[in-house]
Amino acid sequence: MAYKLEIEPTGDIVEVQEGQTLLDAALRQGVYIPHACNHGLCGTCKVEVLEGEVDYGNASSFALMDSERDDGYCLACTATITENVVIEADIEVDIDARTIPIKDVWGTVIKREMLTPRILGLWIELDADLDFQAGQYINYHIPVFEEPRAFSLANQPSSGRVIELNIGIIPDGEATPWIHKNVKVGDKRKITGPFGRFFVKKSANKPMIFFAGGSGLSSPKSMILDELENGCTLPITLFHGARNKEELYYAELFWDLEKKYPNFRYVPVLSANEDPFWSGEVGFTNDVAKKMYDGKFDGNKAYLCGPPMMTEACIKVLMQGRLFEKDIHTEKFFSKADLYSNSVKSPLFKSI
Question: Phi and psi for 349 in degrees, rounded to 5?
Fold first, then answer.
């Protein structure tokens, strides 16, 4: 049975199937509601129920407090309905966002490669086209887990039906150790997407600074490749942080891009260098960036994707250098551990 969901202030009306979450219904019909984790952990998709009743689903008490439930709020990513409902969402117009309905696509793993000792590269050939903006992510469905896992697309949109995922292993995690050990060439997998609003703000027409750490390189790789192949002439700098040279992957690709494109600069940074032949930067990306930009970042757009400690340190340096929230864009994923953590949200500003 289907119900009607009306979304204010846009006035959009979408059809919601029984058992379908409000967020899933809206995104599949090309209607955007702010979201991030998709699993009731972060509170980004919090909306107010103006008319009708909802089932709150598995929303964490941190993301949706009891007092907020009492005031009529729910999380769109977990809430379902059994009657027509009207909600109000905090929707900001983003002129750089394309309207791309999410969909389910099946694909076959055609290649797997350890990019570093802890990051697995998977290449999946899809059965149908998947449109997306460089920087977005997909949900990867795993047979042994009820909930899919989110991974950024590391390939640019022009790559056709072959997508690339870079999956860093979390030793005490559930899904990533299983993926590293069990996924093999020939496996069929369902992919759902695209999700997220982490992409280049082309309308700003400003130089770009990317900060990446670990498997957080995925989105910047996709975004940079897309910008360069589409003729971008604005200055683009990538700061890529790794613990050591063994963890520094795709360096050859970016060095080649630096030679080919005069507007692109690649700055790999090792935090624990033990290689006597390493002539690059050593330390932390935030300190290296501060040195290279003389502590002044105004007039740029910054895109950050990586471990929380790196992201927070870089945000602090950027803001000290007169670059503020409207020009700093971050990508953050959430794990089950965040259910028990009070550090889901940045103390500096909310993730976008």
Answer: -170, 165
